[in-house]
Write a structure and sequence with these properties.
By secondary structure, the chain is an alpha/beta fold. It contains nine helices and eight strands. The protein has a single domain, classed as Alanine racemase (TIM Barrel). The chain has an eight-stranded parallel β-sheet. The mean pLDDT is about 95.
Length: about 240
């Protein structure tokens, strides 16, 4: 496939996803502009990120710290690009994340928030964070317990180099539309409660390629879309 045809495919996918968001928002009686698109670029080469950037996408989500930092450096000349860490974050990797990322969606305990705050360089704007909530109850999923989420948001909001933006969560896969809607509703309730108690909260990060319509109808303000934008991910070693 030529570079021009790959770029054309990238634009076509981008347009289709934006149309899905627009339609879902309108059907829910919401302003489509209230739903941001985060392109999940994990395991995709930097060239694929550049293709989407060229058609107007600016926010990109990465799951693995090492890969995120490498792409951030490789694509540093792309003005206005915004990097979001959406995967689990271990305490021994907080410094490099605090130094390079614009957002972290996966803060699930106060220790991580404290380290990010302490390690965020003073010459950078406060780091935007979301509290990750385990809305599915799966033992394999990261995230704090739902009954701890609002208190964690309040505690993190008192840290000096962070800006708490909202909540992030993922439903259990393959459970059907109604169960997915129920898990999204739980996160939406926690988000609404936190918004009443913490100034500046404005982001409900939920919804992916397969369920973004349900997420938008449930109040999502940011959908995290990978496969529908990039196609199937390459099969290779996952970086740390």
């Amino acid at each position: 496939m030529t570079a021009s045809s790959e770029a054309s495919q990238a634009k076509d996918r981008f347009v289709r996803v934006c149309e899905r968001i627009r339609t879902a928002a309108q059907q829910a009686g919401r302003d489509p502009a209230a739903v941001a698109l985060l392109a999940v670029s994990k395991l995709q080469p930097a060239a694929k990120v550049s293709e989407l950037y060229a058609v107007g996408q600016r926010a990109f989500g990465e799951n693995y710290v090492q890969e995120a930092v490498q792409k951030c450096a490789e694509l540093a000349d792309l003005a206005g690009i915004e990097w979001h860490l959406i995967g689990p974050l271990q305490s021994n990797k907080t410094r490099v994340v605090a130094e390079t990322m614009h957002w972290v969606h996966s803060v699930d305990r106060l220790k991580i928030a404290e380290r990010l705050s302490a390690q965020r360089p003073a010459d950078l704007p406060p780091l935007n964070i979301c509290i990750q909530v385990n809305i599915s109850g799966e033992a394999s999923k990261s995230g704090c317990a739902p009954d701890e989420a609002v208190a964690l948001a309040k505690a993190a909001s008192g840290l000096p180099r962070l800006r708490v933006r909202g909540m992030m969560g993922m439903p259990e896969p393959g459970i059907g539309a109604e169960a997915t809607r129920s898990q999204f509703a739980l996160l939406a309730r926690l988000y609404a409660e936190a918004k009443q108690q913490v100034a500046g909260i404005d982001t409900l990060s939920m919804g992916m390629s397969d369920d973004l319509e349900i997420a938008v109808a449930s109040g999502s303000t940011m959908v995290r879309v990978g496969t529908a934008l990039f196609g199937a991910r390459p099969v290779n070693q996952q970086p740390g």
